[in-house]
User: Fold these one by one.
Assistant:
Number 1:
Amino acid sequence: MSETHEDTNLAAALVGLSHHVLHLFADAGRAHDLTQQQAELVCAVIVRGRVGMSELGRALHMEKSALSNLVDRAEKRDLVTRTRDPHDRRATWVELTPEGARLAEATHDDVTARIKGLVEGLSGQDRAHLTGVLTQLRDAAQG
Amino acid sequence: MSETHEDTNLAAALVGLSHHVLHLFADAGRAHDLTQQQAELVCAVIVRGRVGMSELGRALHMEKSALSNLVDRAEKRDLVTRTRDPHDRRATWVELTPEGARLAEATHDDVTARIKGLVEGLSGQDRAHLTGVLTQLRDAAQG
DNA sequence: TATTGTTATACTCTATAACTATA
DNA sequence: TATAGTTATAGAGTATAACAATA
């Protein structure tokens, strides 16, 4: 197999797997009456503790206006709260409510468990290697 | 690092990377005035040649009604056509129009190129290993 | 009866651009 | 001037359920 052809296979496998992984948020969220985007939002907040709108936009790859709307709806559903940063009054911090934290934890655990189930067919060596490579790729992508 | 902790890292890296990969469709599509979902649709069709609604729904992880709406809009924009299967008149085949095929090829090439750019920092050995593992995971996920 | 797909309804999500407030 | 975020508008995407047609 040529290198180019193999890269094409790599790309196809990565795209198919990415679809599957993000769909896990839809599945896990549905169990708690959260949309996929709401599930991604609360999981992104819980792993960061407290997070600004800009960082959240980068993490979720959303325009600031789309994120503002998403946070609006999440706030109405008592999942998150907004607070102003007193040191830079332009900035907003997003935090989970107790209810949001409860759903976020359940959803995050569910997604993580599903991913663990997905990779359990791999050898420990393959998993360790995969973790290193994926981390490197993700950091390169976000860098 | 414990195995459990390492699996958590694996899950986090996979989620972050999946976000990035699917966002490539949004970027690549925008260059041709396609939404992310339209870009995913025409790319899914071009790699399959001609495809039924059910298979498309599985590939894109969409409910049949959502897919029906997406294909409606794509048909209005002259990206795809629907034809009835004469052997099973319940079934519908989706094909690309010449215009749809042109945009699909450009978008697919663009996404593939971006993914190749992403993995070019890896050694040939790491890439080959990654291709094997990702293919295995994708097939397990879709199986 | 089961399957394939569409339609109806009511939301949620998103992009673009114009806007406010703060730095 | 630049940055952080919101609002307005209009359209795209989605889930649920009810529906029609075919197998």
Number 2:
Amino acid sequence: MRDTSHDLGADLQSAVARIYSRFRSERSEGELGDAAVGVLIALAKNGALTLTELSERARVTTGSMSQTVNRLVTGGYVDRARDPADGRRMLIETTPAGAEVAAEARAHRVSWLNARLAELTPAERATLAEASALIRRIADS
Amino acid sequence: MRDTSHDLGADLQSAVARIYSRFRSERSEGELGDAAVGVLIALAKNGALTLTELSERARVTTGSMSQTVNRLVTGGYVDRARDPADGRRMLIETTPAGAEVAAEARAHRVSWLNARLAELTPAERATLAEASALIRRIADS
DNA sequence: CTGCTTAGTTATACTTCGCAACTGTGCGTG
DNA sequence: CACGCACAGTTGCGAAGTATAACTAAGCAG
């Protein structure tokens, strides 16, 4: 079977793809899409950000992000405002409604996962905590 | 703010989302989309599968999978054939061209990741190997 | 003012997905 | 056998997300 040193890259890639697909399928109806929720969470955590900052965080083009922000503005979740210091920039900020949705979405997003994690041993959770840090380091490298 | 032991679920979810987005941006072969490549790889690994089997593996509806298979058929990467044992079923199988694309995609898909993993310590790789198994277990639970 | 750069928007196209309506096949029951 | 139900797929429609490319607008030299 799976010797862990055999092909860790393929193994990790497939495990990540698998659980990511599970995340998507656990997402409740009516909820905003993945990209939109990601923007709301980023704004809730960091305050107002420019379009370019948002697009860099999500690793998408500014064109794509502009459309995602359009959907959020239409839904009343965020506001656009010109940066007073640089008229080319737009500062995007959550509305109160958007901040609330961000908090709910974030809680719901991980509720299924937290239930699974609660079934693991402390040692297993520690392994996953270490792995999370490693994965994030790799992703941001 | 960022106590990993406090909210492991959110931490793991965000790490997975982040590296998954990195996977997407590292993939160069723009020819086929993610879902289509996933189907080719599944078929290359398992031989012919029915539409329902494919849709369950990818956790999508049969309608979505049917369209993905349509695109692959149009591109000449897979063939459809009725199951002789059950006329309702379709057996989907890679063409030689599809098998080749699957092998290339599979290798390319993890080449970036393997390069990163090579920079880690053996202990870190062991942590990720354990975590992969745990993540897969959670995803399939 | 002219020209270049940066920030963002809009238009178009493509992939993926779910939902719903539909066809066609298999199978059991009266 | 005929009818009806269950199962396997297909198709059409709409939504989200993405990239590319062409465009506007603002800042910044010179």
Number 3:
Amino acid sequence: MSLFPGRIRRKPEAPRSSLRLEAGHKLYHAGSEGLAWRLSQGVVRLDTVLQGETSFASLAIAGDILGCETLLFGAYTFSASALTQCELTPWPEGEGAASGESLLESLALAQRRAADVVALRGGQAADRVLGLIRLLGDEAGRVVLPTRQDIADITNLRFETISRIIKSLERSRILAPIRIDGVHATRSFSVNLASLAG
Amino acid sequence: MSLFPGRIRRKPEAPRSSLRLEAGHKLYHAGSEGLAWRLSQGVVRLDTVLQGETSFASLAIAGDILGCETLLFGAYTFSASALTQCELTPWPEGEGAASGESLLESLALAQRRAADVVALRGGQAADRVLGLIRLLGDEAGRVVLPTRQDIADITNLRFETISRIIKSLERSRILAPIRIDGVHATRSFSVNLASLAG
DNA sequence: CGAGCACTTGATCTATGTCAACGGTAGTGG
DNA sequence: CCACTACCGTTGACATAGATCAAGTGCTCG
């Protein structure tokens, strides 16, 4: 019934001009120019760059807006890199989409996300890691975690500590590694949701 | 030259309907209804309330917007209380003031502030306290700090640790307590800006 | 005058950091 | 194919920054 059947987007999940980014890859560097993005899938890490030193600044997960400051200043404030496989769409998406209500929602979301990230840097080490797992897991109880080092940067712990904690979560059956082709994955887990109640 | 000289606001610094809040006082509680605010002076602490437990979530300083989620959901997500004497104005302030550009600015500011707060929870204890002092101090090198306990909540340290750090900053002349009527103030300091270079 | 709060300081403990060694996997180049 | 390097992750032994516990000061308020 479409007037232009041939022009309908090919894949409903991946609208025209969306971007896919592999884990570990950079989306943009602080100071450079580019678009603003909405993150539709995955996890992105934002870093401040100060005197050449790069340090963890914030986390973006599905729904969050990235690099909106570029629309104001023409340059990114932070560097962004994918912690898991990501999908992004240029933002603002529609013509009138970026005004009023929608921007306000984004502002409220940004403030909520900020609180989430702050919470990941306080309390017992194991609880921080669990907090991150809760934040990144889906409803079905699956998580793809970032590397131990990235988790360490986010939670302000050391990667050795993260390694010990994750191993102990495995031993206590809170996390179960997912095997792919019989290969022991170190970052994909199914989560025992009951023991994760927050 | 004004057409309506009698209607010009009385005090340029305190526009009509602005609110003053003393240190330690609550601005609003999570879950309740109210206005959104722009913080024009002072420091406000935001807390998440989870199962009766209240824990530090974020910090707002001059320029930041507070409680904007109330415009969307009709209820505050966090609780807000003044850490120092504050001045607030209802937001959005003007008729067209809350659209487009201005909202985008607020979003970018919120993301920057989030990174600031995250940075206050990583690194050496003394550096976190210095980071907070840098964030709260004015250009003239004056700071009014929150209580030791509030600083501790912000930096994820203990108040005894904060007490020791501040005392040691005093001893090394980085902070100088300001005496009021000869009374030794414990929260007002002048800062040796040179040793604070960040 | 007593109660409550904010702050200081000392003594001791411990969660986490640090250092070190090692294993697995992927990529690269001969 | 192997050798080599570069990551990433695991685990053990030990060190320490900061937490915890405890006691005491001074101020304010009723």
